[in-house]
Amino acid sequence: MNAPTSRFALVLLDFQPPPLNSLGDQATSVLDNAATALAWARAQGLTVAHVRVGFTPADFEAIAEHNKSFGGLRAGKRFVDGTPECEFVEQMRPEAGEITVRKTRFGAFSTTDLEKQLRQAGVDGLILAGQSSSGVVLSTVREAADLDFRLVVLADACGDPDPELNGFLMETLFPRQADVITTSDLDDLVA
Fold first, then answer.
1. Which of 2, 29, 115, 160 is the most exposed, fewest CB within 10 Å of its CB?
2. pTM for this model (two decimals)
């Protein structure tokens, strides 16, 4: 797994109040571990990308009413861009020069220019942390694999409202396309 970290980016997915609140008791440890990964990435000089969900009126109109996942957001006008629920939590706020994108679907790539920004930065490997594992992390792992990125998932910096599903993803599904490690293993990436 050892590879030059200058080509890796840490990608932080949906570290916003509502997604984190859905984790219940897991939220604090997931957030603490993600903050540890963020401090590590900054110390290593890695590219850091922050991904958040947020909808404009036009984005809501683009959601099909029959969309099982996003139809309810459209009807309830949740995650309105510019509201506090769409902001990054304090521990995960971007610093100047870090990539920030707003998405309107599960994955980090399909409705953003994240791939373009990462490629321009010379990135070919992603270290993923986020919530929820069965939503944004799963979709981003699949999309990133299709885009030929090397993938690392930080198991202890990801969470899901369904702990059993989270375990299945980390232990069975994600290892098919990514190295699944914990934040304590991050230094091995630069060893």
1. 2
2. 0.94
